Amino acid sequence: MKIVVIDDDKLVAISLKTILEATGRITVAAMGSSGAEAIRLYEAEKPDVMLMDIRMDGMTGLEAGEQILKASPDAKLLYLTTFSDDEYIVKALRMGAKGYILKQDFEGIAPALEAVMRGQSVFGETIISRLPEMMKQPETYDYAAHGISEKEREIMELVAEGLSNKEIAARLCLGEGTVRNYVSELLDKLSLRDRTQLAVYYYTEVKA
Amino acid sequence: MKIVVIDDDKLVAISLKTILEATGRITVAAMGSSGAEAIRLYEAEKPDVMLMDIRMDGMTGLEAGEQILKASPDAKLLYLTTFSDDEYIVKALRMGAKGYILKQDFEGIAPALEAVMRGQSVFGETIISRLPEMMKQPETYDYAAHGISEKEREIMELVAEGLSNKEIAARLCLGEGTVRNYVSELLDKLSLRDRTQLAVYYYTEVKA
DNA sequence: GCGCGGATATGACATTTGTCATGTCACAAA
DNA sequence: TTTGTGACATGACAAATGTCATATCCGCGC
């Protein structure tokens, strides 16, 4: 397997080369230390996988990756990071990177490269554990816990759609005053002041 | 590396054993064909990694996984699937599975196991490519396209926090009437009726 | 039967909200 | 200089909103 290593810390780059080549199954065809070099070396070597530091002086690994993927959409990019910067994870994923692992995890790098070459995606443990929070959690809101009745829930949803009391009354075949009472009751239970806060509450707490 | 294979298709299980043991680095300590067996065998063998089909008769691989993780939180579970069922991916991730790959990808399974044993997470290509959609898209809302000025944007955000006109005025050092004018202007531009609809708009269109 | 609580309703009331017309001020373009 | 033009403000007004006290009806437990 032919790879290219990009890291602006020469020492790290060399250590990586040593470790990886010691496996006998990996050849480091070239090394670079900047985003610009990454782009050039990818084109020149067309490695099976490119192992790249995500943060470097000048062009970041992500920007370089974007360029590379634009030219070679099936490029396999495996990012290295010192500590998992939440910010980058999502960007890298969206960009189409094949993985994102910790530099410290020397032993894990070779297997990760192999898995990536086989078309899989690899993520360090601390990284993947952050994904769940990033995805919509279906943590269903517990109406009962807040003493919200079924009817009140219904009213809340309609308020959260932007309907006026009159419209809600029409929709549910109730008197407008009744709807007001429900809204008032809800505001009281949830310690809110007005229907707008109720809508905000709905989007931030209930449906979040 | 010691693993346990769970698949309700005996043929698949045996094929896996053959392929994996051929690498010389993997030992299949036991095989099972149901969720219940998975739980029992995990306890009995304490394998480095457990390779498990995600859909089986009776208890699904996910349920079994939950039980196993409850008893052994650091268990490493690598799921196999025939075709990527979107539904399961998220659940598996949230549950704490270490990976999710396609059965068809025979060659990839061994490297995936190694990576998982090193503490990484592995996902088949078709799987990871679905993640981006599942995560919040940062499609930034184009204020300019709707003729929303900077100040108006600020007002909108405060309304969307549930503040009253008076509170917004205080926050921004403006007259209350001025704030009303801004709100009124916003409602006009966005064809809305009241501040509640503005908040709803904010959560559904701008910040969605 | 009696009383009680919940769902529904009404009316009165104060407040907030949205609209509009109008005014001031600064600053830039003509 | 004059003339916009945009940011900020005021006041008046009508409509919507939130609160509260109160009333009716209905079913349920005793």
What strand line-up does the widest sheet of chain A have? 2-1-3-4-5-6
Largest sheet of chain A at a glance? 6 strands, parallel
- Examine the coordinates and then state which fold CATH places here, giving the name of the CATH topology of the largest domain in chain A: Rossmann fold
What would you call the quaternary organization?
A: homodimer
What is the CATH C level class of the largest domain in chain A, in words?
Alpha Beta
Number of helices of chain A: 11
Name the helicity range of chain A: 40-55%
- What Rg of chain A, in angstroms, do the CA atoms define? 26 Å
Mean pLDDT of chain A, to the nearest integer, reads: 85
- Could you tell me which chain pair has the largest interface and how many residues each side has? A-B, 47 and 46 residues
By CATH, the architecture of the largest domain in chain A is named 3-Layer(aba) Sandwich
Which runs of chain A of at least 5 residues are low in confidence (pLDDT < 50)?
Answer: none
What's the order of the H and E elements of chain A? EHEHEHEHEHEHHHHHH
Q: Assign an overall shape of chain A.
A: elongated
How many β-strands of chain A, per DSSP?
A: 6
Strand fraction band of chain A?
Answer: 5-15%
The secondary structure category of chain A is alpha/beta
How many domain modules of chain A? 2
Question: How far apart are the termini of chain A?
Answer: 45 Å
